[in-house]
Write a structure and sequence with these properties.
By secondary structure, the protein is mainly alpha-helical. It has eleven helices and two strands. It has one domain: Rhopdopsin 7-helix transmembrane proteins (Up-down Bundle), CATH 1.20.1070.
Length: 228
Amino acid sequence: MLLENFLDGITATLIVIFGIVFAIIVLYKAKKMEARLLFYGALMGLFASLLWLGPCLDFLLVIFFEQNLTPVQLYGILSYMWVAPATITGLYIGAQLMIPEKKKVVVIIYSILSIIFELFLFLDTDRAFDFQTSGGTIDSKFVYGHPTFILVAVFLLSVFILNGIGSLRKAIQATGVIRKKFYYMAATFFLFVIVGAFDALLSPGPLLAITRMGMIVCAFLLYSALKP
């Protein structure tokens, strides 16, 4: 296995394991503290970490059984089936904090778009991704112009504007502890969008591995922002 493919697999595995463990701990704390937004934040973090489930499972199969995930379409499906719940929970948090009076409208709109995304993902997987198996593990890239690529771009842009810029605007207007929490929130979503965009564009290698570690930072920033 090439070094870049090993880095790709190990970072994906670390994100998935850390995301699951961190989400379980935070969900327990959120229920105990009756912190609703923290509960949804933990769910969002869980779904976001599972976006790397495809490369994680493929890496583990290669390491332990010397075979790739088959059929190759499972790589894309297992990774991106979590886009819908991650988007809905994330934008629910953004809407609740920024435009609470419009949160139902936001959730309905993005639920519809998420369903459309999932349909294209499951029914047109072959044309949605470009799969490659060089270096021992599978690598995939979105096919530019395909509806799945367009919708992911829309979701990331929405998170950047509603959650990121919205939180930054609230931070500037607030003072004290509230200001700090909104700064944490803004940093969380700006970093998440950067990691998501780079992960879709970069090939396996050290730069991609370093970028992915931003997901773990996101988890701690989001917890700091939402904890009571």
